[in-house]
Every structure is written in C-alpha cells, then in structure tokens.
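Narrative of activities, Objective 1.

The group set out to show that a structural description can be obtained from nothing but a protein's sequence at a throughput compatible with the screening campaign. Below is one input-output pair from the validation batch, recorded exactly as produced.
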Amino acid sequence: MSPSSAAPREPAAGAAHILTLNAGSSSIKYALFALHGAPGERVVAGQVEGLGGGAATHADALQQVITKIGDARVVAVGHRIVHGGVRFDAPVRIDDDSLAAMAALEPLAPLHQQHNLAGVRAAMQAFPLAPQVACFDTAFHRTMPALHQRFALPSDLHEAGVRRYGFHGLSYESIHAQLIARAPALAAARVVVAHLGNGASMCAMLAGRSVATTMSFSPLDGLPMGTRCGRLDAAAVLYLQQQLGMAPERIAQLLYRESGLLGLSGLSSDLRLLQKSSAPGAREAIEYFVEHVQAEVAGMTAALHGIDALVFTGGIGENARAVREHVVRGLAWLGLKLDARAHAAKAERISSADSAVAVWVLHTDEESVIARHTARVLATVPAPAQRQAQP
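Output recorded for this entry:
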C-alpha cells in the first residue's frame, strides 16, 4: 500500500475531529476535519492505495490512516455509501440493522457497495466507540418527481425497489453549496451538473433539488464511463444471455468492467491516455463520450424546461479542457459560448459575457459534505468523545 496525502498540520490537542472515509476496491480516500473548525477546512487529507488482490485489506489501510492523523481525537467517522435504496433518504448512524440493510444492496452497486461497507467494518474496529455515519449518494435524488423515479414497469416492481435512484448525490450537493457561495442567483435557478470521471453522470437541479439524473437503478446506466457501458437496450442483455449463452456473471463482468471507454477504444479506460493516442479506437471512444454528454445535457435541460447554468466537475469534467470545449461547442444551439481566455486560464466561470447559459468548472468536495452531515447526525445522536483505538 502507498499512502498519499495533502500537507498535514498538527491536529489541535484535545480538539474533537470528524474523519471521513471513501472506501473503494483499491484505495481509501480520507480527510480529517475539526468538529468546530472552519467549514470545509481539512486538517489532514489523503489516500491509501494498493488494496485488493490479497495484498492488503481495508483494515490494513485504516491503520495507515490512523498513523497519518496522529493524535487526533476522532469523535465520529463519516462514510460515503453509494446505494441507499428506498429506505435511506438521509444520513444515518450505522448500527447492525442498517449495516445489514446496506449490505443487501450490494448487487445494485457491485463496484462500490461491498468496498464502502468493508471500510465501515474496518472503521468500526479501529474506532470502536466513535459513531459511524453513512452518507448516501442516492439520498440527494429522493426529491425527484415521482415520474422521474419510475420505469415503465408494473407498479408492484416499482414498490419492490425496481426504480430510478440516481447517484453521485454527495458531489451534486457539494456543487450546489459552492454555487450558493459564488453565484447565489444561479444556485436558485436551473442548473445541469456534469460529474464526468471514471464514473459519470449528470443531474438536473432546480434551486439545488434533484429533478432528474442520468444514472438510474444502478451506477451502470446513463453516460458511457471508464469501463461501464452506460445506457443499453435491455434486449441486448437478453440476447447476450439467451443467444450467445453468456452467464449472468460474465455479462456483469462485461458491462461493468470491460465496456465504456475501455471497450470502445480497446486500449484504456483512462481518458488522458486516449487523448495522447493516435489509434482510431481512442478517437472514436472520445467522440462517443462527447456525443453522449451533449445528448444528456439536452435531456436534463428538457427535464428542467430550460437551463441557466452548466457546471463541469469530476476528474474529466475538471481537468479535460478539450472535452469541455467540444461539449460546449456542440451545445451552441442552446446558447452556450466559451470565453477562450477564461477557459485557458482555468477560471471557474468559463462562459463568455454574451453566453445565454453560464458555464462553470468547479472542484467537487464530497468529503466536506460527508463531514457536515456527520456533524449533524452527531449533534442529534450524541455520543461520548472518543479517540481512535490503537492496534
């Protein structure tokens, strides 16, 4: 395992801190916040990499995190949990019952949920007396109109949980909070946020509330992603199984891990590598991605009956300047125009003065959202101040 972190500062002696964890299959992102510190100000932040493959466990990674945060007094741990299903529409303090309910949702988010929960279990061992708080990516989208939560399936299946959930909610919540601080009028308006990265989705927000989103039942739907196919005709899955004889497990492997930019290019799931390649497959993968981003912006605009701002975020959204430029050019019919100088200077607002739609680039800060939610849960469910357990 290899830890990487922002330049730490010594935690204040005796002060209460919240630790946030975003546990994945190969890494754990962490951040430490003073409970009563400035909003969003990290004391320590970083990432422990190299999990998986039998080399190291989430518990091993937590021991590295404990080393990095030193003598900080951890009074609560907040976790990103990708899927909250129908039950969880707000952050909750984790107990045995809620942990079991979250584990039951693992088939709906196989790339994420089991690893999120492995981080929870490791943290429960490392910090046995500190409350553990689950913050759900799906919860943000529970404000969607009922029609936007439905599939055209019988109602009994909808009631059984076969519905549109939406994901990346913590990211969208972060962007809305930033717009409140930077452009309050836009925060109250019709905003489409494009969270573009290895996982990619969009959200149509009206006054900070989710109206529609591109991911639905699982994080497989919507935009093409690094290794995920995005939107796919359901009959194609039936064909793979019934006519080509693929087992469900093989189909899952194909759709989740072998498709998207990787499948289209035949080279890589990393857009940075594809941009450097002269291979036809790399160019086709990028063009496919851009085309579908443009189409989904149009779809989100329709859900809002108009658009006042487009915000790019996520690894691709924040860093792939050429992709942003191509997307905005293709949306000129919606009134979007770039300011070339602002775009080159990496400004947050990159639209021209005469653009009918404001275009922004903002860095998503899911950790601060998790810390804020954890503090609120801690305030309503008080627990004794605790320090991390030692191995």
